[in-house]
Amino acid sequence: MTALKHFNNGFAYLEIENRQAKAKIALQGAHIFEYTKEGEASLLWLSQKSLFENNKAIRGGIPVCFPWFGKNDKGKDLPQHGFARTMIWDVVLQEDLDECTTHIVLRLESNAATKKMWNYDFHVELDFLIGKQLQVSMHIKNCSTIPFDVTTALHTYFKISNINKVLLDGLSHNQYYDALTKKRGTHQDSTGFSQEVDRIYYAVPNKIYLQDEMRKVEIESFGAHSLVVWNPWIEKSKHMRDMTPDGYKTMLCLETANAGDDIVTIHPNQSHKIGAIYRIV
Ligand code: BG6
Predict the structure, then answer these.
(1) CATH class assigned to 2-280
(2) pTM (whole model) above 0.85
(3) What is the pLDDT of residues 67-91, one digit of tens each?
(4) 229 CA from centroid of ligand 1 (Å)
(5) What residue ranges do the domains of the chain occupy?
(6) Ligand 1 mean position to 199 CA, how many Å?
(7) With helix as H, strand as E and coil as C, how does the chain read?
(8) Is residue 250 over pLDDT 90?
(9) Does residue 190 register a pLDDT over 90?
(10) Atom 6 of ligand 1: nearest residue by CA position
(11) Atom of ligand 1 lying closest to residue 199 CA
């Protein structure tokens, strides 16, 4: 069952419930901000101070970064992580496939506002399968007459019990770019984080695992070559008005992406698909 709901300020979202899971997806940004599998704690972290406001991305869940990831050097007024996460998307499909799985599709098409920031014709769909696992995929179509380049991410905030003890498994000697030191490096296995992290890992395997004290989550990605690992830690959190001082302790962003060096060129009438399946194993 899916219902359209609103917060008091009018901010709209879909509330989904079936026999296997519950979820909430904001129309702004096609942004899923809750997914809870039956009998489990919430998969996605959501800041207790998250703003559900027009034109502000929700702090938590899965923000969608499109058509660029990170800052855009072409203009200082261009929004970080693109415009998709703060625009209103249309719901084009909502159906229960059976008692245990709900299929939702939202769509964003180029318009006068998007063309001011990025002068191409496109449509992009966010496709959700909500059930005993969560599948999220982004389908981008180039409707222009010339090719365009995109960088993208599903900027997933995972809820964890302890940032100091969480283990990221599945990477081997992957190369990464560290946005804090502006240097490249090679991954070394370690348990837990003890400081701010902001890295883009390259050539990542299509299955990685987040091992936490409370559970293990498998992230199976498709159409993605990079993985962004981010936690703002203490100092950066102080400068973010939608983070609590302790919020960083119970979250880790593992972002299925094509970011940094991994730029995707999409030709006219061609499409690109990137996505992930999240399983509590
Ligand atoms: C990460 C970036 O993906 O997102 C970080 O690597 C950034 O550099 C973070 O700080 C959060 O971005 P925002 O725009 O949601 O505050």
Answers:
(1) mainly beta
(2) yes
(3) 999 999 999 999 999 999 999 999 9
(4) 10
(5) 2-280
(6) 10
(7) CEEEEECCCCCEEEEEECCCEEEEEECECCEEEEEEECCCCCCECECCCCCCCCCCCCCECECEECCCCCCCCCCCCCCCCCCHHHCECEEEEEEEEECCEEEEEEEEECCHHHHHHCCCCEEEEEEEEECCCEEEEEEEEECCCCCEEECEEECCEEECCCCCCCEEECCCCCEEEECCCCEEEECCCCECCCCCEEEEECCCCCEEEEECCCCEEEEEEECCCEEEEEECHHHHHHCCCCCCCCHHHHEEEEEEEECCCCCEEECCCCEEEEEEEEEEC
(8) yes
(9) no
(10) 198
(11) 6
